[in-house]
Amino acid sequence: MRSQKHYSILVLSLALLFSVWCGFKIKDLQFDYDFEAFFPNEDNELGYYQDFRNRFEWDNEFVLLGIENKQGIFRKDFLVKVDSLTADLKKIPFIDRVISPTNIKNISLNGMPVQTRLLHIDDESLYASDSTHIYRTPELIGSFFPPDAKSLSIFIKTDQGLSKRKSDSLARSIEAAFTRYKFDDVHFVGRIVAQDVYLKNLQSEFVYFLVISFALVIVFLWLSFRSLYGVIVPISIVLVSILWTMGIMSMLGKAIDIMTVMMPTMIFISGMSDVVHFFSKYFEELSKGTERDKIYPLILKEVGFPTFLTLITTVVGFLSLLFSSIMPIRDFGIYTSVGICVAFLLSYTLLPALLYIFTPKRMVSVHGHDNNTYNLMRKGLFWIFRNQKTILVITGLLIVLSVVGIYKIKVNNLLLEDLSDSVKIKQDFNFFDKHYSGVRPLELAIEIKDKNKTVWDYDVMTQLNKVDEFLTKEYHAGFIYSPAMLARSVNKALNGAEDGSRFPLREEYDDVRKQLQGNKKNKDIKRIISPDGHFARISGKIKDEGSLVINERNEKLRAFLSQHIDPKVMEVKITGAAHLVDRNNEYMVDNMTQGFVFSIIVIALLTYFLHRSWRMVLVFILPNLIPLLIIAGIMGFAGIELKAATSLVFSIAFGVATDDTIHFISRLKIELGYGKSLLYAFKRTYFETGKPILLTTFILMGGFISLMVSDFQSTFYFGFLICITIIIAVLADIFLLPVLLFLILGKRKK
Question: What sign does the dihedral 573-576-578-583 (CA atoms) show?
């Protein structure tokens, strides 16, 4: 007795010291959203892209301003303000260049004009001819001007690789600049804006998730234990678990990102499950009159080992994320696994110490067996045994329906789909998709394979012009910047071509080539053609219609290239930041499939090792696999697309859902080991595990429901789908699992 008291005091002291240390470390914890951390690193796509942008420029370092004027843009007061804003923007640090309708003027290459002035701002009498010229130049519509002439856009190229601090400073400076002019409305999009919005949302949601989770769990704990002690102690254990995990993260220099922002909620949920099982068993034994010194060994035998197994299955679910090549997802799996292990450790060290030092009598009286819950559970169990065939038939029908739904699932990805439509940047993004060619970068890398040729050759340039035409027709691309575009612009200046989109004839091209090649070191040309003429790029902006639509267009483009581009002369390849995000989505689905299979195999082997029966493996796997099939079917019927976030659900949900099955089977095995009849063992198992299983189910749901308040669509669906999975999983454990166990164990008894 004395040694146990000393042990409890020692554990509490050590836990307090380490908690204080973690509290000091947490203040150094940072929030971060590194967009490029989500780029895939498979098939050398990332390496190719990095070489490409080092040769030319970063394709996602830009800002677009869409400036509205309800009365029309061809008004002097409006254009003067836009011109003044353009001049102000050029003075802002970290801006490389500003291209505005008011500053696109005559540009000379060796004295020859390439572009004519678009707008004569000071002479209103020329506005009509300016308007006619602009709307007869296809390259300008959807880029700097919309079809309705109610707004115009300004393209801002920022310095490359800006830090978070510099990006925030630049975003504030740009916003301050256009705010001074009081336009009807300004739409402001770009990486530096999206990054700031994401990080602010991460910080606010980090708090929301914890507060909502705590509130819901406190309600469930109070309803279960009817005591302030029964609320404070479990909450304290999981809070300390979260504190320790975040302290470890800070010590290792890991920041909180869009994935790890969910980590505290995951630890809170999993840790609370362990605490509740321990807590319930402890007070049930006290209510039976078991001596306190004998309770802990009994808990280790009857609850500790099953809880340890649930720890393994849950950790396996999260560690399956290591199959992903995306570092933030791998980190989420690693640190959440660490947190879950910490919560388990504290549940069997710190919690017993707290319970030993102080246990209120009120808690003992709450755990009597003579109440309506046990009567209801007894009736439910007998109903299940009388309706075994009905349960199996209903399960079969649900599986068939789910398989039908699975075939309806689509793999898709939108760049800003994570954000709610109520968020300003999402509205601005949609504005450019509606009125312009879009914001999503489109990049093609060109490499001349024939060493005897360069981009300047007429046959090469002609093929590239066809690619431009294809992009305009099929992708409706705007802001196209390409070698052929330069050739068309020079041709217009040299030969007075009225149609700026006309590609030069062969007899016209010699002069065009001289002008271009003579200025190959001009910085504007070097952005799309390397000085040696062996590498080039085609850059543009398109609407973000989803990876499903864009992949279809990419396939059409590849087919077009195979027919119209000589592979011996050159190679044209799709690349760019947006393309990598799409590829990431495809890789993620494959990675998560591998991780899910890994989870099933590990858990199946573990089950076989414990029970030495493949039938028991099926009994264990089926009740937890069926909920995932149903969830996949619901996704198909509801139109919820498969993407990086939703693909995470399956591995994690499988690991979480197995917890109740483990507790049920383990308890049944213990009861049978005591020599009880099969029917009586089932009844005792239902009574002993039923209440903790239901309570942990409500706690799990309370935790995951908190994710559904997120402005990030992926986080919302993650919480929603796991909540549905948990509900179906507990129903499968309550109704299907006893039927399957009774079928197998009943035959053995006979």
Answer: positive
pLDDT digits (tens, 9 = 90+) for 688-724: 777 777 777 777 777 777 777 777 777 788 788 888 8
Other Cβ atoms less than 10 A from the Cβ of 186: the count is 19
**What is the per-residue pLDDT for 67?**
92
Please report which confidence band the pLDDT of residue 68 belongs to, taking 50, 70 and 90 as the band edges: very high
The number of beta carbons lying within 10 Å of the beta carbon of residue 19 is 15
Beta-carbon contacts of 709 under 8 Å, excluding residues fewer than 6 positions away, are 205, 208, 209, 212
What pLDDT was estimated at residue 631?
87
| pLDDT of 261 higher than 90 | no
Q: Is 83 exposed, middle or buried (0-12, 13-18, 19+ CB in 10 A)?
A: middle
Task: Tell me how far apart the alpha carbons of residues 493 and 106 are, in angstroms, rounded to a whole number.
Answer: 9
Q: Which residue would you say has higher pLDDT here, 733 or 152?
A: 152
pLDDT of residue 85: 93
SS (H, E, C) 499-527: CCCCCCCHHHHHHHHHHHHHCCCCHHHHC
Structural tokens at position 374: 């046990």
- The answer, yes or no, to whether residue 362 has pLDDT greater than 70, is no
Cβ count near 407 (within 10 Å): 9
pLDDT confidence of residue 372: 63
Q: Are the C-beta atoms of residues 454 and 533 closer than 8 Å to each other?
A: yes
Cα 688 from Cα 683, distance rounded (Å): 9
pLDDT-derived band of residue 371, with 50, 70 and 90 as boundaries?
Answer: low
Residues 100, 301: Cα–Cα separation, whole Å: 74
Give the pair of three-digit tokens for residue 91.
Answer: 């003075």
- Burial classification of residue 467, based on how many CB atoms lie within 10 Å of its CB (0-12 exposed, 13-18 middle, 19 or more buried): buried
List Cα–Cα distances, 52 to 137, 356, 406, 447, 528, in angstroms: 30, 64, 39, 10, 11
Measure Cα distances from 207 to 199, 313, 679 in Å. 13, 28, 48
Q: Which domains does the chain show, CATH number per domain?
A: 1-30+226-368 (1.20.1640.10), 61-195 (3.30.70), 371-407+613-750 (1.20.1640.10), 431-577 (no CATH)
Residue 555: CB atoms within 10 A of its CB come to 10
With vertex at residue 674, the alpha carbon angle to CA 672 and CA 680, rounded to the nearest 5 degrees, is 55
* Contacts for 66 with CB less than 8 Å, ≥ 6 apart: 151, 152, 153, 186, 187, 188, 189, 428, 431, 432, 435, 436
pLDDT for position 88: 92
Whether this prediction's pTM lies above 0.85 is answered by no
Residues 143-152, mean pLDDT to the nearest whole number:
89
pLDDT on residue 106: 42
Phi/psi of residue 254, nearest 5 degrees: -90, 125
SS (H, E, C) 560-595: HHHHHCCCCCEEEEEECHHHHHHHHHHHHHHHHHHH
Query: How many CB atoms sit inside 10 A of residue 647's CB?
Result: 21
Task: List alpha helices for 407-522, DSSP H.
Answer: 424-435, 458-470, 483-495, 506-518
**Apex 320 CA angle, 319 and 322, nearest 5:** 75
Q: Six-digit token pair at 125?
A: 């009498």
Residue 492: what are its φ and ψ, rounded to 5°?
-65, -40
Which DSSP helix (H) or strand (E) runs through 112?
A: strand 112-113
Cα 267 to Cα 273: distance, rounded to the nearest angstrom: 10
Provide, rounded to the nearest whole percent, the portion of the chain with pLDDT above 90.
Answer: 8
Decide: 623 and 720 in contact? Cβ < 8 Å.
Answer: no
* pLDDT computed for residue 115 by the predictor: 47
Tokens, residue 400: 């068939």
